[in-house]
Amino acid sequence: MANGQEGGMSMREQAIVDKILEKAPYAEGKVRRERRIEFTVPAERIRDFLTLLKKNNFELMLQITPVDWPNDGEIELIYQIWSVTHRTHVMVRTRIPRELEKARMPTVKDIYPVAETYERDAHDFFGVYFEGNWKMEMPWILDDTEQDIYPLRKDFDMLQYVKKKYKILDRFDENKDNYVI
Amino acid sequence: MVDWRLFEPLFEFARKRSLWIVSFCTGCGGIEMPPLMTSRYDLERFGMMANPAPRMADLFLITGYVTPKTLKRIIITYELQPDPKYVMAHGSCPLNGGVYWDSYNAIKHLDKYIPVDVVIAGCMPRPEAVMDGINKIMEMIENGTADSWKRYKENYEWYKKNQDELFGEGWREREARRWIPWLMDKKEE
Amino acid sequence: MVAQSELIKEARENGMDLLPLDKDTYELFFGPQHMATENFSIILKMDGHRVVEAIANPGFLHRGFEKLAEFRPWHTNVALLLRVCVPESDVPETIYSMAVDEIIGWEVPERAQWIRTTVLEMARVSSYLFWIMGLSFKLGVYTAGQWAAAYRERLMALFEQLTGARVYHIYTIPGGVRRDIPSDRWLHQLKDTVEYIKSKLPDFDHLVFENYITFKRMEGIGVMNKKFALSEGVTGPNLRATGVPYDVRRADPYLLYPELDFEVPVLNEGDALARALIRRFELEQDLYILEQLLDMGPPSGPYQVSDPRLKNLPRFKVPAGDAFSHVESTKGDFGAYVVSDGKNKPYRVQIRGPSIAHGIRVLEHLLVGSRIADVPVILMSLDNCPPDIDR
Amino acid sequence: MITSMIGIALKAFLILLYATFVGFMFMGIIRIVTARIHRRVGPPIYQPILDTIKLLSKKSNITHGLIYDFGVLYALGATILALMFIPLGSISILRAYGDLILITFLLEIPMLGIMFAAMSSGNPWAGLGSQRALLTLLAVQVPLGFAIVALAEFYDTFSTYQIVMAQQTAGWSITYLPLLLAAVAYDIVLQAMFGKEPFDIMIAPGEISLGPMVEFGGKHMGILQIQHAIALFAETLFFSNIFLGGAVVTAFASSILNTLASLGILLIKQLAVLLIAIFIGAIFPRFTIDQAARFYWKWPTIIAAAGAILAAL
Amino acid sequence: MEEIEFKIAPESKIKKKPSYIKPWLGLKYLFKKPVTIKIPHEKTQIAKKYRGFHTLDWKKCVGCNFCGQICPARAIEMTWLEVDGKMEKRPHPKIDYGRCTFCQFCVDVCPTGALRFIESFILTSEWEEDTIQLFDWVPIHPEKFRKLQESYNDWRFPVEKIEFNKETKEVVYHLRDGEVFKFKILGYGIRPPKKQKGGTDSKPD
Fold first, then answer.
1. What's the gap in Å between the CA of A122 and the closest CA on chain B?
2. If 0-12 CB within 10 Å is exposed, 13-18 middle and 19+ buried, where does residue A3 land?
3. What is the ipTM of this complex?
4. pTM of the full predicted structure?
5. What CATH superfamily classification does C65-390 receive?
């Protein structure tokens, strides 16, 4: 698999990036490699930008990936969209504060309906609240008892939680407690 | 009144040779159940078949790791089964957590919540290993040592305490009502 | 519109016991203890035999892989992440490995690429056979299902020889594969198996895909159109059944696929039957691809990149960066997004299962108005795989 | 008087025993032959007996009230009654009253008993299954009625025994075109009565988890297994009696030999009926309930009606 | 949409015609030999390098803890052992089959090749406190395991019973051929145990 990082192969991608950036001056964009481009958008313009992308034939939303960066105090949301027409994968990066009450985003489910599911997912695991998505409080993967914890955040102490919830970790020898992960 | 104990050996033989499995594959081990049930390994030779209704089932296969959400259903399904009933745990995960030993959403020791007769190693266990486990259960039924259902009755308080500790008191009612607000007719905009 | 949260609050305050539904509807909990929806639950609001409303309830298989992966060394994560897709466990292995390869900048040796492609195609064939089994069991023609499961065992035996395990192969790792092809005999056996399965395909046609009653059961059930499917993020055969020629193997070529010749099936109906027929055709194409790969023969060379760091796997570090890679699985577009911060463990791994798109919203949409008997058929025709929703 | 009463009772008991045993064997044969079509070995032939013993030996039993218990017994009783009306070679208890319509009715009402029991359990799956069972019953009635009419028209009698005797001299019913048509229609109906695909709609394990049976466990299910065995025997027996010539052997001097010979001939005919049902069941998927109803009201009805009209001409 | 440069299958190839007759061909295997492996009577062929249980050459093992570090399930714990009153120079991996996923990364990383695996895979036990000890063991020597496997040839775990005394930490393996193998667990971890626990009753050398 050739990872042609640069070169003539990415001309087509560059053209797409230029075209989008022309209409969205608030965004930054670059070509990562063949068939991979990425944009960075401020959080409040995300709806405009995704509307623009959808108009430019980026049809399939593949996922919304939240990444927790506790050192920056931010959660990065990466909207990954695939264009069947251009055959290009685009990542739209945006950052929001990671405090629970401030981690809010406008929903994009009216632009990409499937985003509703991804937003529920992000809400369940990262505590990002998407305003306008009425299924936000609907039970998703996690059970009732885990309702107020956000396990995929970096500050979630999993081992401690597991010890508390399931009492013992090792059946065969309880003295064996020097777990290093 | 006929003394049914006279027929007990016959009953034991019938129980041994006619283990109906409740069709509830709880984890990844479920993927090895179809090969076991179908032509290649054909468990029906031993009179076993998957049964959709827990009321008719005798054997509960815990096929792999158990999440708390599934465990609730497992407990309810297990209690639906009529006695005598047997439980077999597949693979490493029900025993000691398996590869999910530090996962926040997998049960570590299944025997705290429901009693288990036989456990087999493997991740996932090959069909041959599962069949060996089933043979073991058959032997145990013959010897009368497969008594997990008795244990569940005798130590019900202990099991219930553990279940309540994990899920919180009154989890059955909560689970039953959980979806009510979402099934109501949505008001017009 | 009244926010749903207020409705919940109201319901809880009133201590609501019974469902305030209309008198002629009732609720039906479809799964997880149900033959059609193993490990997945659908809450159905029913009116007689018709479904009025459906709510998908996933999460019975959630283990938190994305968290667990942050605590395990890079290579070891393969042993974990492949559990995301149980019937086709090579796909998560490969996407994770491809993403890590991309971050490191490794050029995977040709032999490893050949083996990866072969393993992926074998996994596809076995997954499709598994799907035929599921479909025929749900339709009620058990014979075809029994056969499919039996023929799949041949592939399992080959996998066992190649990788050392039947289901969880833990075979494709960053930088190549873990073992070499055992012997030339294995290649011959694979060839025989491909021919064997190919010769048995008409049997499945007779019983399932050319059966009059199958047509009756599946025609016009669960229809999606192109626009709906695209906006809902549906991929794979489900999308192709609505008329969009999107196949990751062609749209975003990886491994040896650019050199291979195969046809992408596209139908315009978008119903359950179209989806089934597309899968049936792809099974044939996968066997054809395997034949081509065998004709090509494995290129000589190493099966792993040679890197001194690989000697010490626990301390193996990956440079900071991120990468997205995806492959075409039988269920659709399977993607992995991996972030590294330069340590010996990943910073974040996300797996994008195709079922999260077609298993939740699309399912809920398609079920409305269908009969209860169609629910398993629609589920099976979408090839909904709960573990990759739950992860 | 009393001795004859005891004799009849003994005979009835023997018939019942024979029917139950053969019925269980039939269930075993169904499973083995299906397994062979599936390319697997399958269970031993006595497996259904073991299943039933196991079910009856269950230690705990769930009941949902009087109707729940009564429905199961009602089903068993109705099946046994039906069995007594069907001529079994030359031995039969109530063959003189063995009216075609009565037997058909008695063969159908066990379903009602099961449905009562299932409905009283309050399980939604059982409710769904019962609705399906009712609709299947309803759908089956039309072709069944025409087939019976064709028979009655052709032989000018409603008595099963007389039809059997008439066939001894005039040849099997299915050698006549109108009755052949009726037989085809009846055989399709039989598929639903056996609960085999494509008409196993009321059980449909992959759809509604066994439907009415979902709540039965332990002894209730054991009784239903026995009922199923007897019903299998009775239904195949009825079909072979009215369409395949039955069997009344009078060649031997000894009446016991005659009885045995006719039982043997009947057994072969019953097996043939059973095998056809197994074959159809193994190769066709299941209809949905509305498709099945539409199907029954179309082809089997047309065939049976044609048979009836031809028979009347 | 952009023009497509790959092959699209024509619809005629994909579509099928419904038929009432063709399903009858499904009966063709009725009189053929079943494909079933009759397991108690027949043996299945296990692939040569099937990833089964571990074996450990105690002489070769240097106690580097690579296996413990790579293990995704943390099933391996380095254990200090005492055999016949003599402490082993290096800790040995103790493997918990209640955790192990049989990925055999531990075997891959073992620098001396002491840790190996064998094709045996069957380990069945009742779920009771004393019998379940079978799932936790320090693997035995490969040659011994291989010998047991070849003599029984049923892919079973070589140990029939493990006695573990929780107070004295004494372990007794009852192998399948009647051999008894005893040792004592002194402690866990890569550090020798006497530094942490001076008060233990064991005092080798």
1. 17
2. middle
3. 0.90
4. 0.91
5. Cytochrome-c3 Hydrogenase, chain B (1.10.645.10)
